[in-house]
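In the previous chapter we treated chains in isolation. Here, by contrast, the input contains three separate entities that must be folded as one system, with a combined length of 242 residues.
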Amino acid sequence: MRVGGFLLRTTSLVDAPVTETQLLERASALAGVSLGDAARLVGQTTPGHLRGHKGWVGCLLETLLGATAGSADRPDFEAIGVELKTIPLRSDGQPLETTFVCSIDLLSVAHVEWRDSRVFRKLRRVLWFPVHAERHIPIAVRRLGTPFLWSPSPDQEAALRWDWEELAGLIGRGDVDDITGHFGRSLQVRPKAANSRVRRRGLDADGCAISVLPRGFYLRPAFTSRIIRDAFRSPDVETPTL
DNA sequence: GATTGATCATAC
DNA sequence: GTATGATCAATC
């Protein structure tokens, strides 16, 4: 099957990219391709809905681009230190969802430096892959947009760091159960679990071990929409295919 | 309509 | 159970 000048075989695994340029070329060849066609490239069937397949689009792109990390806490493209994030967009380019960044180790998050944090390490280099994903569009017909590489600007990093330090501080003081999704301008803390009965080790205000709902860091749409807008204003990124 | 809290599939 | 990949859906 030929897509954007690239020949992709359905019978073999895609090899891991060795350079950012190679990754971006490979990803760019998929711009404008429907999810149904993208799935067929690797012999997959598109689900009728995402309710029971919430991570399907992300996993599909990992397969198509040769991501290697699996379920390990490492970059998706280990050799080049790049993380892959698919992001669902409306026709006007606004994100439809928040973006999950990482789960939170409630016992240690307050004791690490920002630059050593899981949030920064995940976001220091990201391949964003937009997907036109309005709910009324059948999954197989939804189209991939134009992918681009991104690192946080000094302003963006400062904004993330500000929120992270506040939230990590609250968790470290034992106030995790006082945190709601309302906290944070760019980054927020929300549940990240199979269901609301799941518990994990946390700390109370006295530093004693307690059981709490697992949490994760998420990027707000207000933050990711600026990333999208900046990317498509830049001269070296083509008009988004949406 | 936007947002927060809840939830789903899968691999190990 | 822990990690990955996220979207769903009740509520504001």
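The first helix of chain A runs from residue 20 to 28. Residues 50-51, 53-59, 62, 69-73, 86, 88, 96-100, 103, 133, 194, 198, 200, 214 of chain A lie near DNA strand C (CB under 10 Å from a C1'). Compare these points with the single-chain example from earlier in the chapter.
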